[in-house]
Amino acid sequence: MFSWLKRRKKKERKPIFSIVGRERASYLVASTEQPVSESSNIHARLVRAGLIEATVNPRTAAKIFIGKAEGVSYPDDFNDFQDYLDAYYYVPYVARAIDVKQFMIWQRGYSLESTDQESVKRIEAFLKELQADTVIREGTLYALIFGNMYWHIRRDEDRVRLKPLNPMKVGIKYDENKEEVISYVYTPKLGRRINFKPEEILHLKFNAEPWNLFGVSTLRRVLPTIKAILFMEEKLPWLARRRADPLLEIQIGSPDNPISEEEFNRIKTAILNRKPGEDIFHDGTVRIDEVYKSGGIGTRQNLEPILTHFRQNLIAGLGVSEPALGFGGTTTMATAEYQERILEAEVRSYQRALKRLHENYLFKLIQTERPVKLKWKPLKTEDLFNLSKKLMVEIEHGVISPKYARQRLGYPPEAGENALRDQRLVPHLERKAEDEGDA
Asked: What is the CA radius of gyration of the chain?
């Protein structure tokens, strides 16, 4: 007895037929439908799965989107930049995590402080002219995705402009000892290379290593998990087809009831040409069985720990609570609150990086009499309320003035006009002149 394997055309659904008879012992027509992955690239995987359209050749996408120049240094994970962007564009829970962090950074804004109010007004006018509330805010999103964001500082006569640069096409050129930055190199397209002096570039970086001039993407630690989940999701349509239309093994004839090849072909043709859902009638010479058995409840229980493992890795890496990602079914309130506190700590670290960017670089693009400091407002309403209570106590004990408290709470200067004060509060002599102007 022998078997004959005939490979069917790609994506063609055929059952397995076997025959037992006098002339030939058996026939077997079968193959697998399981797709073979050619690349781990996120864009290519989504195209193969039919989830997005292929606007470019995935094999040359890196050459098109990411521009590298010879003799220039780039971030260690530079080759993953396209995957970071595709993950944000096409994977919902990744986009949600990045958006949540972006919203939290900027949701309550900041205030400016200085010992000279004219300096504050000058910086405010400068930021308004730059449209910094839009330009810097939008750039922050891509700093979260890539770990780096760059703006070209353009000086047109007496005006300053910030032109965003694509982080996927920016590198740094060092001196011979690799100690000082000679220039930032921008390759907007193949064959074109622009060198900018260090003072012409505003560079925002997150999660930077102390010894490295580049930041690190918030997605770097979860990229393997994202790809693993996408790999499993890529197989889901194939698994669904197997469950809805399982591959069948159909035996025609048996050692006890052998049939001829002509009879085998007649029965096989009748089975293949039957209408969907139509029953099969036979005299005992046909046996039908599923090649892949349905797993049932036990199989689901075996898969659940695997799915939970990847989900937990994803949540831990993204740093966003399960309810925010839509995975809150098994999360307790205490766990969600703890995750939220961890997220707030991460957001404050990003705010500190933005504070340094403004104070050490952006504010110095314009001359002021006194240094101007950026103060982020509390992240949550209850934090703002607690800060207000704290400031009220400090006012009563003469630690700060009402004017400073209003500034910290984000009130405009005119909010102090005709304000009333508890008569039991006696101004300090050194602050008397200032406080009388606030009363």
From this structure: 33
